[in-house]
Amino acid sequence: MFGRDSAEISGISSELHRRFAHNPAIIGAVETALLDAWTRRRGIPLWRVFGRHAQALQSDITIVLADLEETRDSINRFYRQGFRMFKVKIGRDLDRDIKRILLFKDLAPGCPVIVDANQGYTPAEMVRFVDQLKRRQARLDLIEQPVPREDWQGLQEIERKTRIPVCADESARTIQDVQKIIKYNLCSAVNIKIMKCGLIHGQRIARLCQDQGIRLMIGGMMESGIAMTASAHLAAGMGGFDFIDLDTPFFIKGAVERHPYLSPSGRYTLSAVPVGIGLNRDQLYDG
Questions:
Q1: Domain extents for the chain?
Q2: Going by fewer Cβ within 10 Å, which terminus of the chain is more open, N or C?
Q3: Tens of pLDDT along 224-266?
Q4: Phi first, then psi: what are they for 259, rounded to 5°?
Q5: CATH second-level architecture of 3-284?
Q6: Tens digit of pLDDT for each residue in 161-203?
Q7: How far apart are CA 111 and CA 107, in angstroms?
């Protein structure tokens, strides 16, 4: 950001974090609206706050918790739609989860696969899960938040024993959390969500991770397509995000069809945004 207004916006962000530390979604929403207005007034796109160029972003697609048949149908449908990276929700039934991941060998061969346990497993269960997949030569690229938020050592143990990168989500809500992850070498990646920390702190966390060699995911919490696009501006402007998980519009009826910068296969092209986020509510939603 530029000039005196930059310091003012940073000050507002600090005040928001002081007042709404226990409701970070408010911080994310207010900062998004503030920066959208700020960039519109200056005639620049939002991504320009975070960098000089807007990288195109290719999102993964989420395969929700489901039985084997529903999982098979989802993989087939999204593969035909053009997706080539998949994020699979797991965490309720280890043996069934193993069978679900094995489906990708035949249905989406060679495609990167992320699993997100949403704090659902113990370290021992997660190690067993990975061992079973390795024996069957199934691809697994990243493990997201396999254990409860406060199980810091569990994150480290899983990465050490499986040699698969682990990504902190719920364990990485604040800058202080990320500093702890870095200090004690707890895991290799961090998922940044503006509804956890806002855009300004999200940028700070991303810079800290990039400086320390921590890989980055940009994700969301089922927020609106506008908020998803704000997150995309952060990642596109900064660059350096290895994992893009901004697929919520694909689970909101009609949102993708009306989104001018998101393709049916999950590609965000924000270089064409004229000013601000580039969207308004009427573009994405009925009513």
A1: 3-284
A2: C
A3: 889 999 999 999 999 999 999 999 999 988 888 889 999 999 9
A4: -90, 115
A5: Alpha-Beta Barrel (3.20)
A6: 999 999 999 999 999 999 999 999 999 999 999 999 999 999 9
A7: 9
